[in-house]
Every structure is written in structure tokens, then in C-alpha cells.
Amino acid sequence: MAPYESEDSQGSGRRKAARYAVPVAVVGVAAVTIGLVPALADSGDPDLPKITARELIEKIAASDTEQVSGTVKIHTDLGLPSLGGATPGLPGAGGGKDSSSADPKAKLTELATGTHTLRIAADGQDRQKLSILDDASEYSVIHNGADVWAYDSGSDEAYHAKNTEGASGDRARKHSSELPATPKQLTDEILKASGSTTSYTVDGTAQVAGRDAYRLQIKPRQSGSTVGAVTVSVDAKTGTPLKFTLTPASGGAAVVDAGFTKVDFGKPAASTFDFTPPKGTKVTEAGEPQDGGRAKQAPDGVGSLDGLRVIGTGWTSVAELKLPGDSGVAGLASGSASSGMPGDAQKFLDSLGDKVKGEFGAGTVYSTRLVNVLITEDGKVYAGAVTKEALVKAADAG
Q1: Residue 289: partners with Cβ closer than 8 Å, 6 or more residues away
Q2: Do the domain assignments include residue 32?
Q3: What is the extent of the structural domain holding 98?
Q4: Is the pTM here over 0.70, yes or no?
Q5: 343 in a domain, yes or no?
Q6: For residue 125, what are the contacts with CB-CB under 8 A and spacing of at least 6?
Q7: Rounded to an integer, what distance in angstroms lies between the CA atom of residue 144 and that of residue 161?
Q8: Are the beta carbons of 173 and 303 closer than 8 angstroms?
Q9: pLDDT tens per residue, range 195-251
């Protein structure tokens, strides 16, 4: 499939589409989502009118699709080491011993690895439903006006958040968007990174979920990024992203791939968004203490990441932050006794990282196929979708 055209400068088209761009906070996307699923319904090269990259970006920006339902396949392959089936938690993601298994934050890490089937439905900004389908259970997040419900059929637990300031307030929307997993959400994140550091090409056509689509290819211009390319299949009729694939600069299988296998742009039935907890379900209200009436306090320093700043621009941006002094993470990186870890556990952790030195001092780099993280001995963290060399260079500059 030969490219139709390469756009070096998007001009007004890029500015118009900026609010729909999929951000280069690729770190955030990678932390909570997806990888390559060969079985996605992507076949054929339909004969469509030629279109420029600028026109296709504008088509995405102009898309007013508010009603959609269907099935999405999503898979993440970050190259993380196997932990015997355990899913590592993310800071602030919930899922502690006192939290509800139905809390959306507790489910984020499940989408960070492996293959998942999602069923989605949306009817405007105030009604959405997303379900994660497993062999023997189902987890759903339902936003209906002022209410957000999450239900885990496996544990028979429900989580409820209510917006007390109006049916379409920001609080309810925040809870309903805890799981950014659709091609549209991922595409919006990447396109936010539009700028002179990015090139755009229309890379032919495809069929996704029975729909004719254009393929928009997005590539970093900067050296040092671990992102090879992002390919978005855009519905030719509606301008809605149907499939999102992120491939690493190192080659091989995609790191993130999410696409519809079935899609319908008709209005979902109103009953789709109705939810009443089944009898006997344990219901947790948002903000409710989980330990018998006494709210648990986070340890000193946890949740208060200090001095977050960004070094660099575009695809090679690196986030720098200072860890709390009593977090012990700096000790983990240095292998010092202050880490408090058993020797064998420390050796295992050391085997996952590479010791590095620079003008910044010394530390350890932990790598995935997309994101590299440097933890220095003096308690700083540098993270980005950049190579190890670029990460060390950013730390030296910081």
C-alpha cells in the first residue's frame, strides 16, 4: 500500500485537530493499555477517493460521532517480565487490600498486559458503558447521567460514584473515563502531540470491522524516541478511529493495538445504561472508608510526588520527579540496605535493570519495549518513551 502523500507541515489543519490528537504522553497510554492482536478484523484494501494527511486529520477532528456500540480487541505487549500471573500495581491505581475490587482504578493494571475483549456503548457525553469480558466473569463501568456504577461479577462487588452537582458534571465523567481503551481515546491522546516533531502520511486503505477506512500513519521526526510509528485506521464515512496500533522503533510486534471487531453507529437502547446491583452485592460508595469506618491515611509522602517537570519536547519529552524521602525507592535502585528488601529480592530487582552513571550521578534504568525509567540513587525518577541513552542525557541536563 503506497502512501498517498506525506505532510511536512499541517498548518491550520493541525491546529484545528489539536484537541483530537492522541498525546505523546505515550507513557500514560502505555501504563494503562494495549498490544498487537493479529485476529483483529482488518482486511482488504478498499478503493477510496484519495485524501491528504491534513484532510484526514481534519476529518477526525470534525467527527461528531456520539452514538456507537461494538466489540473491541485490545492487547498490550510492553515486554514486562513474567511475575507468575501477578499483575503489578501502579502508584495511585487503587487495588489495595482495603479497596473494592470493582473500583475502576483497581482495574487499570489489568489492561497493561495481555489480550482483552471489551464491549462498549455510548450515547452522548452522559451515557457510556464499557465491559471487560473474561471467560467466567464480566467487569463493567456504566455512566448514566449523575451516576457511575462499576460491577465485578467475579467478586459480586459494585462501586458507585454520584455527581452531586448535576447530571453531566466533571466528577461523573472523570469516573466513567478511568479506562482509556477505545481507538478514539487512544487516537485523541496521540494527536495532542501534533507539532513540528511529527510527520503524517496517508498509508493506503483498509477494512476494519466491515468498514472502509483510511490509514493515517504518524511518526516521530526526532531521534531517541522508542516509538516507531502509530497507525490509525479512520472510518471513511464518519471520521471515527476504528483501530489504533503503536509499533516500537526496535521493531517486532506492536506494543499497543486496539481495534473494533464489530461496530454499530446506531443509537444504543436506553436499557444498556441501566444498572441495579444484584441482591447480595457488596456496594462501595466512592470516598467511603474501607476499614470499618476509619479512613486509612496514606503513608507520609505517598501521593505527594514533588517537583514534577518535563525535560525536552515532543516525542522525546522526559518526565522528572523527586521521590518522597521516605519512599525507599531510591534505596531499591542503589541496592542499599535502606531499601529494606531481602537479598534475593534485591538481586531479582537488580536483574531487571541496568546500572548507569552520568553527570547526574548513578542509578538504575528499568526498560520495557516502549518506556524507560531511570531511578537515581538520590531519589529522582526520569521516565519517557525514549531510549536509555536519551534518558541518561535528559538526566544529565536535568
Answers
A1: 295, 296
A2: yes
A3: 5-273
A4: yes
A5: yes
A6: 66, 168, 173
A7: 11
A8: no
A9: 788 999 999 999 999 999 999 999 999 899 999 999 999 999 999 999 999 999 999
- Ramachandran angles phi, psi of 257, nearest 5°: -145, 125
Cβ pair 193, 184 in contact under 8 A: no
| 3-class SS of residue 186 | helix
Q: How far, in Å, CA of 364 to CA of 391, rounded?
A: 11
- pLDDT, tens digit, for every residue of 89-100? 444 444 444 567
For residue 83, the cross-strand partners are none
> Residue 67: which CATH number?
2.50.20.10
Nearest-angstrom CA–CA distance, 197 and 66: 31
Q: Is the pLDDT of residue 329 over 80?
A: no
Helix (H) or strand (E) holding 346: helix 343-352
Residue for grid cell 480487541: 73
What are φ and ψ of residue 54, in 5° steps? -60, -45
Separation CA 128–CA 104 (nearest Å): 14
Give the residue-averaged pLDDT of 100-115: 76
Alpha carbon dihedral 90, 91, 96, 102, in 10-degree steps, equals: -60
